[in-house]
Amino acid sequence: MLYVIGLGLGDEKDITLKGLEAVKKCEKVYIEAYTSLLSFGLSSEGLSSLEKLYGRSVMLADREMVEERADDILNEALVTSVAFLVVGDPFGATTHTDLVVRAKRLGVKVKVVHNASVMNAIGICGLQLYRYGETVSIPFFTETWRPDSFYEKIQRNRTLGLHTLCLLDIRVKEPSLESLCRGKKQYEPPRYMTINTGIEQLLEIEHARGESAYSKETTCVGFARIGSEDQMVVAGPMKELLTIDFGAPLHCLVIVGKTHPVEEEMLDFYTNDGESLRKKTNGHE
User: Fold this and answer.
1) Per-residue pLDDT at 42 exceeds 60
2) pTM for the full predicted model
């Protein structure tokens, strides 16, 4: 049996009772460690907190293990109970869908335990969840790679008056390009995109494209460590969010579309200076 269990967003205590019961049934417990992170990151102290609560050893499953050696996990699940822990909800990343598909093809029984994810936790800012368009991912730019495929999606959402959730890049245990060229993997230090970097890259692409999908005056909401005790939520124009230190990861960003008066009233609680966003944007989109 393969249990795919959502952990929620904060710390080890965010697991559901149903999820905790499932973990305690399992002989092997893996935690996926590259599409998202709990508040304690990948620290040994954090893993110890998980192990103490679960009463089980917890093994880190990095991208390499999940995408290249998933069959090892699934073969174990053919003969014993295995838990695969996912920060947020199990189906918040396509990798986990692929794992379930492969399990079913091998004849492994699968049980899923859902939990909160960033996709619904962003509702705290007051923007109504059914008024969101397609979610986009913003990858780290390099000197030779500056993709802009997210631009059309944001543009389409804003044309329809919809909000856009921008998921900001996480790079954990990524091999460096130089080491791949040498044929011997060496891994880069972990990197987590900040809201500031995300906005800088968004504005760079807008400047290059010049199609006015958004601007430095566009109202956005920045979220840091959402679901944690010290979460931070700030609403304001892009140019203002650029000046704010949002602190430790993880970060994400929402580009605001057309708003209902109730949404606007709630957003005003999250402005940096308490000033109404309707006055602050002064007619700008």
Assistant:
1) no
2) 0.89
